[in-house]
Amino acid sequence: MNRKKLLLTGLFLTTFLLIIINLFSVHNSESKLQKPLSLGFKIISNSQGITLYKKDSDYLQLIDLSEGAKIDFIYGKITDLGTKKGAYGGNNPQFERQTISQVWSNLYSENSSLFCITNGQFFRNDKSSSTALAFPLKSDGIIVSDGYAGEIEFSHEKLMLEVWNNRALISKFQPNNLQFSIATNFIVGLQENADKGVEDQTGRTFIGVQDKDGDRLYETILIFTSKQATQPHATNVLKSFGATQVMMLDGGGSTQLICQGNNYIDSQRTIPQMIAIFSGDKV
Description:
Blueprint: H1 3-31, E1 42-47, E2 50-55, E3 58-64, E4 70-75, E5 78-80, E6 94-96, H2 100-110, E7 114-119, E8 130-131, E9 137-139, E10 142-145, E11 158-163, E12 168-172, H3 177-180, E13 185-190, E14 202-210, E15 220-229, H4 231-240, E16 245-248, E17 257-259, E18 262-265, E19 273-278
Antiparallel strand pairs: 1-2, 2-3, 3-15, 4-19, 5-6, 6-8, 7-17, 7-19, 9-10, 9-13, 11-12, 11-13, 14-15, 14-16, 17-18
């Protein structure tokens, strides 16, 4: 066998071994995941691309973008644009605060594929009927708010969830992400261990992403909501369901969840920004 044939044979074997190793790694990683039912969670509702699980006071939405499911970052009516008053030179609007039930009634009448609504962004919780968001938000291709907090709050602990039609990504937030992100939608939150009363049993809203087929694209979004949980517990639940990246959203009295008209986590607190989840049944 000449030198050229030896090199080709070696290249073939190396490529073959790398493929086998990669497949084994994906299979091994998946085999370590516990099935939701074995964790004690039960399915309480589902639709095309979405499954809602429950265990005690914990709820977990599994949202598969590859099956046509969709999430939108929705917000209340803007009552003041806050032009160029944002932390990064953009706008810092005031948004009308509403209950999730109010928003559900209005949005479901327009789109019956609406599956769930939960709370989202941190905000200034004052007594005003309108308020500003703490961190940046982009919706339908428009940077709606820079937020007011900037790098004064949690400067090294902010993360960003970017969402496209068929995939999502959680990564470290950098101010230049605002202009350079090509995602249609994004929301900025905090690392799982940022100090928001780490061990307090309180309302929690956490979000994670999963690459279910090992193609290095995160096509599944997982949203954890609970009336009473610690930060480590919220993180552990998401990771048990397969999330490899996790981010914390607003919690406490802001944590709310309504699905298919059922108020699973209710609160008297009005909030300015929410996450709407739509099934793949209707577009």
